[in-house]
Amino acid sequence: MRIDLHTHSTASDGTDSPADLVRKAAAVGLDVIALTDHDTTRGHAEALAALPEGLTLVTGAELSCRLDGVSMHMLAYLFDPEEPRLLAERELVRDDRVPRAQGMIAKLNGLGVPVTWEQVRRIAGDGSVGRPHIATALVELGVVPTVNDAFTLDWLADGGRAHMQKHETDPFEALRLVKGAGGVAVFAHPAASKRGRTVPEAAIAELAEAGLDGIEVDHMDHDPDTRARLRGLAQELGLLVTGSSDYHGSRKTCVLGEFMTDPEVYGEITRRATGAFPVPGAGGAR
């Protein structure tokens, strides 16, 4: 089985619609795909309606968290999307994205960059506005050559000249909420130091004690030495090890299925989940 447990659509900051995403996943030979848009499940219905035969969808979301001033992301799988406490927290995080983006635009204007809210809103479309949309605007304006080049201290990285914090959930609270909604929690790209400061391994151990299920080890932002170190840490802490593409369509260079999750680990994730279940495709809409 070929299993990719971390992808994004136009429901957040990807460039493929949920329907196009699942069709592309089937076309490249994936058997299982998780749709994990940032702090939203809005793309699930469209993905399910278009799900091709032979492809299974794992519903989920990537939750924005912050621990001791360090931004981190929590992949939540197979939770009940209508559970009121987790739903309220996702909405709080998502609603804070607009004033945050507007504040970052104001900072960029102060740095002499003529980006506008209208431009960023056009790029985001129906998705929840985020830094990748602002980064795309910087590419359009010729300020940086690629989206990744916008995520530096000169521009949008944590602590960068145009960065602003948004509301982010304490990860221990996120674990409580995900578990309360019957879901499974995996720490996304925990050692992606190119994105900024990372959470120390001692904190990962504390999260494991609090109920963290796994860590995303095989990821494009982890070099081979980092992956080996994280794999050892996961074994020491009794955590599941996942792998995934973190696919965003044309906005990033990663490709579907670039890294994948072992079928035994996927099976354990589905066994632990009680809020929702993987959905096998039945042909989908054409």
List the helices and strands and how they pair.
Layout: E1 3-7, H1 18-27, E2 32-35, H2 44-49, E3 56-67, E4 70-77, H3 84-95, H4 97-110, H5 117-124, H6 131-140, H7 147-150, H8 171-180, E5 184-187, H9 201-209, E6 214-218, H10 224-237, E7 240-243, H11 263-272, E8 279-280
Helix pairs in contact: 5-6
In short:
With 286 residues, this protein is of the alpha/beta class. It has helices spanning 18-27, 44-49, 84-95, 97-110, 117-124, 131-140, 147-150, 171-180, 201-209, 224-237, 263-272; strands at residues 3-7, 32-35, 56-67, 70-77, 184-187, 214-218, 240-243, 279-280. Helix content is 37%, strand content 15%.
Features:
eight-stranded mixed sheet, DNA polymerase, domain 1, 2 domains, TIM Barrel, 37% helix, alpha/beta, globular, 286 residues
| Secondary-structure class | alpha/beta
What is the CATH class designation of the largest domain?
A: Alpha Beta
CATH topology of the largest domain: TIM Barrel
Oligomeric form of this entry? single chain
What is the rounded distance between the termini? Answer: 25 Å
CATH superfamily placement of the largest domain? Metal-dependent hydrolases
Shape: globular
Radius of gyration from CA coordinates: 18 Å
Write the element-wise H/E pattern from the N-terminal end onward: EHEHEEHHHHHHEHEHEHE
